[in-house]
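worker-3 :: picked FAD-binding oxidoreductase
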Amino acid sequence: MPVTRWGDPAHAAPLPDGVRDLVGLVFSLGDTPAKADVAVPAPALAADLLDGLRAVVGADNVVLDDTARRQRTRGKSTPDLLRQRSGDLSDAPDVVVRPGDHDDVQAVLDYAAEHRIAVVPFGGGTSVTGGLIADRDGFAGVLSLDLGRMRSLLSLDPISATATLGPGLRGPEAEALLGEHGLMLGHLPQSFEFATIGGFAATRSSGQASAGYGRFDSMVVGLRAATPKGEVRLGGTSPSNACGPDLRELFLGSEGAFGVITEVTVRVRPVPEVKQYEGWQWPSFEAGADAMRTLAQGDLLPTVLRLSDENETAINLARPDAIGGEGAGGCLMIVGYEGTPSATAAKKAAVTEVLTGLGGTPLGAEPGTAWAAGRFNAPYLRDSLLDVGVLVETLETVTFWSNRERLYGAVKSALEGALGEGTMVLCHVSHVYATGCSLYFTVASAGGEQPLERWLVAKKAANDAIVASGASITHHHAVGTDHRDWLAPEIGDLGVDVLRAVKRELDPTGILNPGVLIP
Ligand SMILES: Cc1cc2nc3c(=O)[nH]c(=O)nc-3n(C[C@H](O)[C@H](O)[C@H](O)COP(=O)(O)OP(=O)(O)OC[C@H]3O[C@@H](n4cnc5c(N)ncnc54)[C@H](O)[C@@H]3O)c2cc1C
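worker-3 :: C-alpha coordinates ->
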Protein backbone atom coordinates (compact mmCIF):
# COMPACT_ATOMS: atom_id res chain seq x y z
CA MET A 1 0.00 0.00 0.00
CA PRO A 2 1.28 3.50 -0.71
CA VAL A 3 1.91 5.47 2.46
CA THR A 4 -0.35 8.39 1.54
CA ARG A 5 -3.38 6.40 0.32
CA TRP A 6 -5.46 3.29 0.95
CA GLY A 7 -5.14 -0.04 -0.79
CA ASP A 8 -4.09 -1.10 -4.25
CA PRO A 9 -2.76 1.87 -6.30
CA ALA A 10 -4.39 0.32 -9.39
CA HIS A 11 -7.81 0.97 -7.86
CA ALA A 12 -7.13 4.63 -7.07
CA ALA A 13 -9.23 6.91 -9.25
CA PRO A 14 -9.95 10.63 -9.36
CA LEU A 15 -13.56 11.65 -8.77
CA PRO A 16 -15.64 11.40 -11.95
CA ASP A 17 -16.41 14.92 -13.28
CA GLY A 18 -20.11 14.69 -12.37
CA VAL A 19 -19.38 13.67 -8.82
CA ARG A 20 -16.65 16.31 -8.50
CA ASP A 21 -19.15 18.97 -9.58
CA LEU A 22 -21.69 17.67 -7.08
CA VAL A 23 -19.12 17.65 -4.28
CA GLY A 24 -18.07 21.16 -5.33
CA LEU A 25 -21.61 22.40 -4.69
CA VAL A 26 -21.20 21.50 -1.03
CA PHE A 27 -17.52 22.01 -0.25
CA SER A 28 -14.93 24.44 -1.54
CA LEU A 29 -12.62 22.29 -3.63
CA GLY A 30 -8.94 22.60 -4.33
CA ASP A 31 -6.13 20.39 -5.52
CA THR A 32 -4.25 18.98 -2.55
CA PRO A 33 -2.00 16.29 -3.95
CA ALA A 34 0.17 14.29 -1.61
CA LYS A 35 3.89 15.05 -1.62
CA ALA A 36 5.36 12.67 -4.15
CA ASP A 37 8.60 11.71 -2.48
CA VAL A 38 8.46 11.85 1.27
CA ALA A 39 11.82 11.56 3.00
CA VAL A 40 12.13 9.09 5.86
CA PRO A 41 14.31 10.09 8.81
CA ALA A 42 17.62 8.19 8.91
CA PRO A 43 17.53 5.05 11.09
CA ALA A 44 18.60 5.82 14.65
CA LEU A 45 19.44 2.30 15.85
CA ALA A 46 23.15 1.75 16.56
CA ALA A 47 25.11 -0.51 14.19
CA ASP A 48 25.97 -3.07 16.89
CA LEU A 49 22.27 -3.47 17.74
CA LEU A 50 21.44 -4.03 14.07
CA ASP A 51 24.18 -6.67 13.94
CA GLY A 52 22.68 -8.27 17.03
CA LEU A 53 19.25 -8.43 15.35
CA ARG A 54 20.84 -9.94 12.23
CA ALA A 55 22.32 -12.67 14.40
CA VAL A 56 18.84 -13.38 15.80
CA VAL A 57 16.71 -13.56 12.61
CA GLY A 58 19.23 -13.54 9.76
CA ALA A 59 20.52 -10.55 7.78
CA ASP A 60 17.80 -10.86 5.11
CA ASN A 61 15.12 -10.28 7.71
CA VAL A 62 16.53 -7.05 9.12
CA VAL A 63 15.43 -4.42 6.64
CA LEU A 64 16.61 -0.81 6.73
CA ASP A 65 15.60 0.55 3.35
CA ASP A 66 13.46 3.67 3.13
CA THR A 67 10.55 2.08 1.27
CA ALA A 68 10.09 -0.68 3.85
CA ARG A 69 10.27 1.77 6.76
CA ARG A 70 7.99 4.28 5.03
CA GLN A 71 5.34 1.59 4.46
CA ARG A 72 5.37 0.64 8.12
CA THR A 73 4.94 4.19 9.37
CA ARG A 74 1.64 4.72 11.23
CA GLY A 75 -1.64 3.27 9.95
CA LYS A 76 -4.47 4.38 7.66
CA SER A 77 -6.59 6.85 9.62
CA THR A 78 -7.22 10.22 7.97
CA PRO A 79 -4.80 11.92 10.43
CA ASP A 80 -2.17 9.30 9.45
CA LEU A 81 -2.76 9.99 5.75
CA LEU A 82 -2.77 13.78 6.24
CA ARG A 83 0.53 13.65 8.13
CA GLN A 84 2.05 11.45 5.46
CA ARG A 85 0.61 13.64 2.66
CA SER A 86 2.22 16.71 4.24
CA GLY A 87 5.61 14.99 4.28
CA ASP A 88 5.72 14.11 7.99
CA LEU A 89 7.20 10.64 8.46
CA SER A 90 8.65 11.37 11.89
CA ASP A 91 7.11 8.19 13.34
CA ALA A 92 8.97 5.90 10.93
CA PRO A 93 10.53 2.85 12.61
CA ASP A 94 14.32 2.58 12.55
CA VAL A 95 14.26 -0.95 11.26
CA VAL A 96 11.80 -3.58 10.00
CA VAL A 97 12.38 -7.07 11.37
CA ARG A 98 10.67 -10.07 9.76
CA PRO A 99 10.43 -13.14 12.03
CA GLY A 100 9.57 -16.48 10.41
CA ASP A 101 7.96 -18.26 13.36
CA HIS A 102 7.07 -18.07 17.04
CA ASP A 103 10.64 -18.84 18.15
CA ASP A 104 11.99 -16.00 16.01
CA VAL A 105 9.48 -13.62 17.60
CA GLN A 106 10.48 -14.78 21.08
CA ALA A 107 14.17 -14.33 20.28
CA VAL A 108 13.59 -10.81 18.91
CA LEU A 109 11.63 -9.85 22.03
CA ASP A 110 14.35 -11.23 24.31
CA TYR A 111 16.96 -9.24 22.41
CA ALA A 112 14.85 -6.07 22.33
CA ALA A 113 14.13 -6.28 26.07
CA GLU A 114 17.81 -6.70 26.85
CA HIS A 115 18.76 -3.68 24.70
CA ARG A 116 15.69 -1.49 25.32
CA ILE A 117 14.45 -1.41 21.75
CA ALA A 118 10.75 -0.52 21.37
CA VAL A 119 8.83 -3.16 19.39
CA VAL A 120 5.75 -2.37 17.29
CA PRO A 121 3.99 -5.54 16.06
CA PHE A 122 2.88 -4.89 12.48
CA GLY A 123 0.14 -6.91 10.72
CA GLY A 124 -1.52 -5.21 7.77
CA GLY A 125 -0.86 -1.66 8.93
CA THR A 126 -4.56 -0.74 8.69
CA SER A 127 -4.91 0.64 12.22
CA VAL A 128 -7.13 3.72 12.35
CA THR A 129 -6.49 4.65 15.97
CA GLY A 130 -2.74 5.28 16.06
CA GLY A 131 -1.95 1.71 17.13
CA LEU A 132 1.35 1.70 15.25
CA ILE A 133 2.80 4.89 16.72
CA ALA A 134 5.26 4.05 19.46
CA ASP A 135 6.60 6.55 21.94
CA ARG A 136 10.37 6.31 21.39
CA ASP A 137 11.42 8.29 24.49
CA GLY A 138 13.90 6.32 26.59
CA PHE A 139 14.45 3.61 23.96
CA ALA A 140 17.49 2.83 21.82
CA GLY A 141 15.21 2.87 18.77
CA VAL A 142 11.93 1.57 17.33
CA LEU A 143 11.62 -1.79 15.60
CA SER A 144 8.64 -2.65 13.41
CA LEU A 145 8.02 -6.37 13.87
CA ASP A 146 6.43 -7.32 10.56
CA LEU A 147 4.55 -10.63 10.88
CA GLY A 148 4.11 -10.98 7.11
CA ARG A 149 6.24 -14.14 6.85
CA MET A 150 4.00 -15.98 9.33
CA ARG A 151 1.14 -16.68 6.96
CA SER A 152 0.25 -20.34 6.95
CA LEU A 153 -2.58 -22.56 7.98
CA LEU A 154 -0.80 -24.29 10.88
CA SER A 155 -3.40 -26.94 11.67
CA LEU A 156 -6.99 -27.88 11.05
CA ASP A 157 -9.40 -29.91 13.16
CA PRO A 158 -12.39 -30.46 10.86
CA ILE A 159 -14.24 -32.50 13.47
CA SER A 160 -14.18 -29.71 16.05
CA ALA A 161 -14.37 -27.07 13.27
CA THR A 162 -11.26 -25.20 14.38
CA ALA A 163 -8.22 -23.97 12.47
CA THR A 164 -4.94 -22.50 13.70
CA LEU A 165 -3.74 -19.62 11.57
CA GLY A 166 -0.51 -17.64 11.33
CA PRO A 167 -0.87 -14.00 12.50
CA GLY A 168 0.40 -12.49 9.25
CA LEU A 169 -2.29 -14.00 7.01
CA ARG A 170 -4.39 -11.31 5.37
CA GLY A 171 -8.17 -11.79 5.25
CA PRO A 172 -8.35 -13.17 1.67
CA GLU A 173 -5.31 -15.41 2.21
CA ALA A 174 -6.85 -16.99 5.31
CA GLU A 175 -10.15 -17.53 3.48
CA ALA A 176 -8.35 -19.08 0.48
CA LEU A 177 -6.46 -21.57 2.68
CA LEU A 178 -9.63 -22.55 4.54
CA GLY A 179 -11.57 -22.64 1.27
CA GLU A 180 -9.35 -25.51 0.06
CA HIS A 181 -11.05 -27.55 2.78
CA GLY A 182 -14.57 -26.26 2.07
CA LEU A 183 -14.37 -24.04 5.15
CA MET A 184 -14.33 -20.34 5.90
CA LEU A 185 -13.98 -17.81 8.67
CA GLY A 186 -16.52 -15.19 7.59
CA HIS A 187 -14.71 -12.17 9.04
CA LEU A 188 -15.13 -9.33 6.54
CA PRO A 189 -14.19 -5.90 7.85
CA GLN A 190 -13.95 -3.17 5.23
CA SER A 191 -10.16 -3.51 5.56
CA PHE A 192 -10.45 -7.27 4.81
CA GLU A 193 -8.10 -7.23 1.81
CA PHE A 194 -5.11 -5.94 3.79
CA ALA A 195 -5.67 -6.54 7.52
CA THR A 196 -4.35 -9.70 9.18
CA ILE A 197 -5.45 -12.44 11.53
CA GLY A 198 -3.10 -11.22 14.30
CA GLY A 199 -4.35 -7.66 13.82
CA PHE A 200 -8.00 -8.76 14.01
CA ALA A 201 -7.31 -10.48 17.34
CA ALA A 202 -5.16 -7.66 18.71
CA THR A 203 -7.87 -5.05 18.01
CA ARG A 204 -11.11 -7.03 18.61
CA SER A 205 -12.17 -6.34 15.08
CA SER A 206 -15.74 -6.72 13.82
CA GLY A 207 -16.73 -7.50 10.24
CA GLN A 208 -19.62 -6.75 7.91
CA ALA A 209 -21.20 -10.15 8.56
CA SER A 210 -21.02 -9.84 12.34
CA ALA A 211 -24.80 -10.30 12.69
CA GLY A 212 -24.44 -13.87 11.42
CA TYR A 213 -20.88 -14.87 12.23
CA GLY A 214 -20.05 -12.70 15.24
CA ARG A 215 -17.17 -10.35 15.91
CA PHE A 216 -13.62 -11.66 15.53
CA ASP A 217 -13.00 -12.08 19.26
CA SER A 218 -16.02 -14.39 19.45
CA MET A 219 -14.44 -16.59 16.75
CA VAL A 220 -11.19 -17.04 18.67
CA VAL A 221 -10.93 -20.37 20.45
CA GLY A 222 -7.28 -20.13 21.48
CA LEU A 223 -4.07 -18.27 20.89
CA ARG A 224 -0.34 -18.37 21.38
CA ALA A 225 1.72 -15.30 22.15
CA ALA A 226 5.35 -14.43 22.76
CA THR A 227 6.01 -11.95 25.56
CA PRO A 228 9.25 -10.58 27.00
CA LYS A 229 8.62 -12.98 29.92
CA GLY A 230 8.12 -16.02 27.69
CA GLU A 231 5.40 -17.95 25.87
CA VAL A 232 1.69 -17.86 26.68
CA ARG A 233 -0.70 -20.51 25.28
CA LEU A 234 -4.37 -20.05 26.00
CA GLY A 235 -7.54 -21.95 25.15
CA GLY A 236 -5.80 -24.99 23.71
CA THR A 237 -7.66 -27.59 25.77
CA SER A 238 -11.37 -26.89 25.46
CA PRO A 239 -13.99 -24.68 23.83
CA SER A 240 -14.79 -23.15 27.19
CA ASN A 241 -14.07 -23.90 30.82
CA ALA A 242 -14.37 -22.71 34.39
CA CYS A 243 -10.65 -22.26 35.04
CA GLY A 244 -10.98 -18.80 36.56
CA PRO A 245 -11.04 -15.60 34.48
CA ASP A 246 -10.56 -16.24 30.76
CA LEU A 247 -7.03 -15.06 30.03
CA ARG A 248 -7.64 -15.18 26.27
CA GLU A 249 -9.52 -11.96 26.83
CA LEU A 250 -6.33 -10.31 28.06
CA PHE A 251 -4.72 -10.76 24.68
CA LEU A 252 -7.78 -10.05 22.55
CA GLY A 253 -7.68 -6.29 22.15
CA SER A 254 -4.24 -5.99 23.76
CA GLU A 255 -2.93 -4.14 20.67
CA GLY A 256 0.58 -5.50 20.97
CA ALA A 257 1.07 -4.03 24.45
CA PHE A 258 1.18 -7.38 26.30
CA GLY A 259 2.71 -9.71 23.75
CA VAL A 260 2.93 -10.65 20.11
CA ILE A 261 0.19 -13.03 18.96
CA THR A 262 1.93 -15.73 16.97
CA GLU A 263 -0.92 -18.22 16.40
CA VAL A 264 -4.69 -17.82 16.47
CA THR A 265 -7.06 -20.78 16.67
CA VAL A 266 -10.45 -19.86 15.28
CA ARG A 267 -13.80 -21.51 14.88
CA VAL A 268 -14.50 -22.23 11.20
CA ARG A 269 -17.69 -23.11 9.30
CA PRO A 270 -18.62 -24.56 5.91
CA VAL A 271 -18.46 -22.22 2.92
CA PRO A 272 -22.08 -21.10 2.35
CA GLU A 273 -23.83 -22.55 -0.67
CA VAL A 274 -26.08 -19.51 -0.97
CA LYS A 275 -25.37 -15.78 -0.58
CA GLN A 276 -28.28 -13.39 -1.03
CA TYR A 277 -28.38 -9.69 -0.22
CA GLU A 278 -31.38 -7.41 -0.52
CA GLY A 279 -32.54 -3.89 0.29
CA TRP A 280 -35.32 -2.61 2.54
CA GLN A 281 -36.55 0.91 2.90
CA TRP A 282 -37.64 2.48 6.21
CA PRO A 283 -39.44 5.76 6.76
CA SER A 284 -36.87 6.84 9.36
CA PHE A 285 -33.60 5.79 11.03
CA GLU A 286 -35.53 5.17 14.22
CA ALA A 287 -38.02 2.83 12.54
CA GLY A 288 -35.18 0.87 10.89
CA ALA A 289 -33.23 0.65 14.15
CA ASP A 290 -36.31 -0.59 15.99
CA ALA A 291 -36.69 -3.30 13.35
CA MET A 292 -33.05 -4.34 13.87
CA ARG A 293 -33.66 -4.54 17.60
CA THR A 294 -36.74 -6.69 17.06
CA LEU A 295 -34.74 -9.12 14.91
CA ALA A 296 -31.84 -9.24 17.38
CA GLN A 297 -34.08 -9.76 20.38
CA GLY A 298 -36.14 -12.35 18.55
CA ASP A 299 -33.04 -14.46 17.71
CA LEU A 300 -33.73 -13.78 14.04
CA LEU A 301 -30.53 -12.13 12.87
CA PRO A 302 -29.62 -12.63 9.22
CA THR A 303 -25.93 -12.84 8.24
CA VAL A 304 -25.59 -9.18 7.23
CA LEU A 305 -27.72 -6.41 8.69
CA ARG A 306 -26.95 -2.73 8.20
CA LEU A 307 -28.98 0.45 8.19
CA SER A 308 -27.99 3.86 6.81
CA ASP A 309 -29.47 7.03 8.29
CA GLU A 310 -31.30 9.53 6.07
CA ASN A 311 -28.10 11.40 5.11
CA GLU A 312 -26.12 8.29 4.24
CA THR A 313 -29.06 6.90 2.29
CA ALA A 314 -29.47 10.18 0.41
CA ILE A 315 -25.91 10.32 -0.83
CA ASN A 316 -25.87 6.56 -1.13
CA LEU A 317 -22.36 6.17 0.15
CA ALA A 318 -22.39 2.47 -0.57
CA ARG A 319 -22.82 3.28 -4.26
CA PRO A 320 -20.71 6.29 -5.22
CA ASP A 321 -21.80 5.79 -8.84
CA ALA A 322 -25.42 6.33 -7.86
CA ILE A 323 -25.16 9.50 -5.76
CA GLY A 324 -28.43 11.39 -6.02
CA GLY A 325 -30.05 8.60 -8.01
CA GLU A 326 -33.46 7.08 -7.71
CA GLY A 327 -34.27 5.26 -4.53
CA ALA A 328 -32.87 7.96 -2.27
CA GLY A 329 -35.17 8.93 0.59
CA GLY A 330 -36.00 7.30 3.89
CA CYS A 331 -33.39 4.91 5.20
CA LEU A 332 -31.82 2.00 3.37
CA MET A 333 -31.30 -1.32 5.13
CA ILE A 334 -29.18 -4.11 3.66
CA VAL A 335 -30.12 -7.63 4.72
CA GLY A 336 -27.96 -10.61 3.72
CA TYR A 337 -28.49 -14.35 4.07
CA GLU A 338 -25.70 -16.93 3.78
CA GLY A 339 -25.81 -20.68 4.39
CA THR A 340 -27.49 -23.74 3.00
CA PRO A 341 -30.49 -23.25 0.66
CA SER A 342 -32.95 -24.53 3.25
CA ALA A 343 -31.54 -22.56 6.19
CA THR A 344 -31.35 -19.29 4.23
CA ALA A 345 -34.88 -19.76 2.83
CA ALA A 346 -36.29 -20.37 6.30
CA LYS A 347 -34.42 -17.39 7.81
CA LYS A 348 -35.43 -15.13 4.93
CA ALA A 349 -39.11 -16.06 5.27
CA ALA A 350 -39.09 -15.36 9.01
CA VAL A 351 -37.16 -12.08 8.69
CA THR A 352 -39.36 -10.89 5.80
CA GLU A 353 -42.48 -11.48 7.86
CA VAL A 354 -41.10 -9.43 10.76
CA LEU A 355 -39.78 -6.56 8.61
CA THR A 356 -42.99 -6.33 6.59
CA GLY A 357 -45.05 -6.34 9.77
CA LEU A 358 -42.96 -3.45 11.14
CA GLY A 359 -43.55 -1.25 8.07
CA GLY A 360 -40.44 -1.95 5.98
CA THR A 361 -40.67 -1.82 2.20
CA PRO A 362 -38.77 -4.52 0.30
CA LEU A 363 -36.57 -3.13 -2.50
CA GLY A 364 -35.48 -6.47 -3.92
CA ALA A 365 -32.00 -7.80 -4.65
CA GLU A 366 -30.53 -4.85 -6.57
CA PRO A 367 -29.49 -2.61 -3.62
CA GLY A 368 -28.08 -5.65 -1.81
CA THR A 369 -26.08 -6.85 -4.81
CA ALA A 370 -24.77 -3.33 -5.42
CA TRP A 371 -23.72 -3.03 -1.76
CA ALA A 372 -21.93 -6.41 -1.89
CA ALA A 373 -20.11 -5.46 -5.10
CA GLY A 374 -18.87 -2.14 -3.68
CA ARG A 375 -18.40 -3.18 -0.06
CA PHE A 376 -14.64 -2.52 -0.01
CA ASN A 377 -14.62 0.64 -2.16
CA ALA A 378 -15.36 3.51 0.24
CA PRO A 379 -11.74 3.98 1.39
CA TYR A 380 -10.71 4.70 -2.21
CA LEU A 381 -13.38 7.41 -2.33
CA ARG A 382 -11.87 8.93 0.83
CA ASP A 383 -8.53 9.33 -0.98
CA SER A 384 -10.22 10.91 -4.00
CA LEU A 385 -11.98 13.41 -1.71
CA LEU A 386 -8.78 14.18 0.21
CA ASP A 387 -7.18 14.88 -3.18
CA VAL A 388 -9.66 17.71 -3.79
CA GLY A 389 -9.37 19.18 -0.30
CA VAL A 390 -12.36 17.55 1.37
CA LEU A 391 -11.73 16.25 4.87
CA VAL A 392 -13.27 12.78 5.29
CA GLU A 393 -13.00 10.50 8.28
CA THR A 394 -15.01 7.88 10.13
CA LEU A 395 -15.51 7.06 13.80
CA GLU A 396 -17.56 4.52 15.66
CA THR A 397 -19.06 3.83 19.06
CA VAL A 398 -21.52 1.42 20.69
CA THR A 399 -24.27 1.63 23.26
CA PHE A 400 -27.45 0.00 24.52
CA TRP A 401 -30.63 0.32 22.45
CA SER A 402 -32.23 2.62 25.01
CA ASN A 403 -29.37 5.12 24.56
CA ARG A 404 -29.03 4.90 20.76
CA GLU A 405 -30.99 7.99 19.84
CA ARG A 406 -29.35 10.21 22.46
CA LEU A 407 -25.88 9.07 21.39
CA TYR A 408 -26.66 9.61 17.71
CA GLY A 409 -27.81 13.19 18.35
CA ALA A 410 -24.92 14.01 20.67
CA VAL A 411 -22.16 12.83 18.30
CA LYS A 412 -23.78 14.48 15.30
CA SER A 413 -24.06 17.84 17.01
CA ALA A 414 -20.53 17.59 18.42
CA LEU A 415 -19.12 17.01 14.93
CA GLU A 416 -21.28 19.68 13.26
CA GLY A 417 -20.50 22.14 16.06
CA ALA A 418 -16.75 21.56 15.81
CA LEU A 419 -16.50 21.60 12.01
CA GLY A 420 -19.09 24.29 11.30
CA GLU A 421 -21.56 24.93 8.53
CA GLY A 422 -21.44 22.77 5.43
CA THR A 423 -20.31 19.69 7.34
CA MET A 424 -21.99 16.46 6.36
CA VAL A 425 -22.41 13.77 9.01
CA LEU A 426 -23.62 10.35 7.88
CA CYS A 427 -24.26 7.36 10.08
CA HIS A 428 -25.04 3.68 9.85
CA VAL A 429 -25.66 0.75 12.15
CA SER A 430 -23.81 -2.37 11.06
CA HIS A 431 -23.22 -4.38 14.22
CA VAL A 432 -26.17 -5.34 16.38
CA TYR A 433 -26.73 -7.26 19.58
CA ALA A 434 -29.85 -8.19 21.51
CA THR A 435 -28.96 -5.41 23.92
CA GLY A 436 -27.59 -2.67 21.67
CA CYS A 437 -25.79 -1.63 18.52
CA SER A 438 -22.79 0.27 17.21
CA LEU A 439 -23.08 3.61 15.42
CA TYR A 440 -20.58 4.30 12.64
CA PHE A 441 -20.23 7.91 11.52
CA THR A 442 -18.71 9.26 8.32
CA VAL A 443 -17.86 12.96 8.33
CA ALA A 444 -17.14 15.16 5.32
CA SER A 445 -16.21 18.82 5.63
CA ALA A 446 -14.10 21.38 3.83
CA GLY A 447 -10.48 20.66 4.70
CA GLY A 448 -9.37 24.30 4.70
CA GLU A 449 -5.76 25.31 5.29
CA GLN A 450 -5.29 23.00 8.26
CA PRO A 451 -7.37 19.86 7.76
CA LEU A 452 -5.47 17.82 10.37
CA GLU A 453 -5.95 20.40 13.11
CA ARG A 454 -9.63 20.77 12.15
CA TRP A 455 -10.15 17.05 12.43
CA LEU A 456 -8.35 16.67 15.77
CA VAL A 457 -10.65 19.29 17.32
CA ALA A 458 -13.73 17.54 15.89
CA LYS A 459 -12.56 14.10 16.98
CA LYS A 460 -12.01 15.31 20.55
CA ALA A 461 -15.49 16.85 20.58
CA ALA A 462 -16.97 13.56 19.33
CA ASN A 463 -15.04 11.50 21.90
CA ASP A 464 -16.15 13.79 24.71
CA ALA A 465 -19.76 13.53 23.49
CA ILE A 466 -19.52 9.73 23.40
CA VAL A 467 -18.26 9.57 26.98
CA ALA A 468 -20.81 12.16 28.18
CA SER A 469 -23.55 10.07 26.55
CA GLY A 470 -22.54 7.00 28.52
CA ALA A 471 -21.45 5.06 25.43
CA SER A 472 -18.24 3.21 24.66
CA ILE A 473 -15.28 4.99 23.08
CA THR A 474 -14.87 2.21 20.50
CA HIS A 475 -16.83 -0.78 19.24
CA HIS A 476 -14.19 -2.23 16.90
CA HIS A 477 -11.45 0.24 15.94
CA ALA A 478 -9.65 -0.28 19.28
CA VAL A 479 -7.87 2.22 21.53
CA GLY A 480 -4.43 2.77 20.01
CA THR A 481 -3.05 6.18 20.92
CA ASP A 482 -6.06 8.16 19.63
CA HIS A 483 -8.55 6.84 22.22
CA ARG A 484 -6.09 6.31 25.07
CA ASP A 485 -7.14 9.46 26.95
CA TRP A 486 -10.75 8.27 26.96
CA LEU A 487 -10.00 4.77 28.31
CA ALA A 488 -10.06 5.70 32.02
CA PRO A 489 -13.66 6.99 31.89
CA GLU A 490 -14.54 3.68 30.24
CA ILE A 491 -12.86 1.20 32.59
CA GLY A 492 -12.13 3.36 35.66
CA ASP A 493 -8.79 4.28 37.26
CA LEU A 494 -8.55 0.90 38.96
CA GLY A 495 -9.17 -0.78 35.61
CA VAL A 496 -6.25 1.18 34.16
CA ASP A 497 -4.09 0.08 37.12
CA VAL A 498 -5.00 -3.54 36.39
CA LEU A 499 -3.86 -3.13 32.76
CA ARG A 500 -0.63 -1.50 33.94
CA ALA A 501 -0.02 -4.36 36.38
CA VAL A 502 -0.51 -6.95 33.62
CA LYS A 503 1.87 -5.04 31.38
CA ARG A 504 4.49 -4.83 34.15
CA GLU A 505 4.26 -8.60 34.61
CA LEU A 506 4.45 -9.55 30.92
CA ASP A 507 6.63 -6.71 29.65
CA PRO A 508 8.71 -5.46 32.61
CA THR A 509 10.93 -3.19 30.51
CA GLY A 510 7.93 -1.74 28.65
CA ILE A 511 9.30 -2.37 25.15
CA LEU A 512 6.01 -3.51 23.60
CA ASN A 513 4.13 -0.75 21.76
CA PRO A 514 5.01 1.95 24.32
CA GLY A 515 2.23 4.52 24.57
CA VAL A 516 -0.39 2.37 22.82
CA LEU A 517 -3.58 1.32 24.66
CA ILE A 518 -2.51 2.01 28.26
CA PRO A 519 -2.79 5.62 29.54
C1 LIG B 1 -10.36 1.59 5.29
C2 LIG B 1 -10.42 0.87 6.59
C3 LIG B 1 -11.55 0.13 6.91
C4 LIG B 1 -11.62 -0.53 8.14
N1 LIG B 1 -12.73 -1.28 8.42
C5 LIG B 1 -12.79 -1.96 9.58
C6 LIG B 1 -13.93 -2.77 9.88
O1 LIG B 1 -14.86 -2.88 9.09
N2 LIG B 1 -13.93 -3.44 11.06
C7 LIG B 1 -12.89 -3.36 11.94
O2 LIG B 1 -12.93 -4.01 12.96
N3 LIG B 1 -11.82 -2.58 11.68
C8 LIG B 1 -11.74 -1.90 10.54
N4 LIG B 1 -10.64 -1.12 10.27
C9 LIG B 1 -9.56 -1.03 11.26
C10 LIG B 1 -8.43 -2.08 11.07
O3 LIG B 1 -8.48 -2.64 9.79
C11 LIG B 1 -8.55 -3.15 12.13
O4 LIG B 1 -8.22 -2.58 13.38
C12 LIG B 1 -7.67 -4.39 11.88
O5 LIG B 1 -8.05 -5.37 12.80
C13 LIG B 1 -6.20 -4.12 12.00
O6 LIG B 1 -5.51 -5.25 11.47
P1 LIG B 1 -4.04 -5.13 10.91
O7 LIG B 1 -3.55 -6.47 10.59
O8 LIG B 1 -3.98 -4.13 9.82
O9 LIG B 1 -3.28 -4.58 12.19
P2 LIG B 1 -2.23 -3.41 12.31
O10 LIG B 1 -2.83 -2.14 11.84
O11 LIG B 1 -0.94 -3.82 11.72
O12 LIG B 1 -2.08 -3.37 13.90
C14 LIG B 1 -3.14 -2.95 14.72
C15 LIG B 1 -2.70 -3.02 16.18
O13 LIG B 1 -2.52 -4.37 16.58
C16 LIG B 1 -1.15 -4.64 16.89
N5 LIG B 1 -0.85 -5.95 16.29
C17 LIG B 1 -0.93 -6.29 14.99
N6 LIG B 1 -0.64 -7.59 14.84
C18 LIG B 1 -0.38 -8.07 16.07
C19 LIG B 1 0.00 -9.35 16.58
N7 LIG B 1 0.15 -10.42 15.80
N8 LIG B 1 0.20 -9.47 17.92
C20 LIG B 1 0.04 -8.42 18.75
N9 LIG B 1 -0.30 -7.20 18.32
C21 LIG B 1 -0.51 -7.03 17.00
C22 LIG B 1 -0.37 -3.49 16.30
O14 LIG B 1 0.84 -3.24 16.98
C23 LIG B 1 -1.36 -2.35 16.42
O15 LIG B 1 -1.35 -1.80 17.71
C24 LIG B 1 -10.55 -0.44 9.05
C25 LIG B 1 -9.41 0.30 8.71
C26 LIG B 1 -9.34 0.95 7.50
C27 LIG B 1 -8.13 1.73 7.15
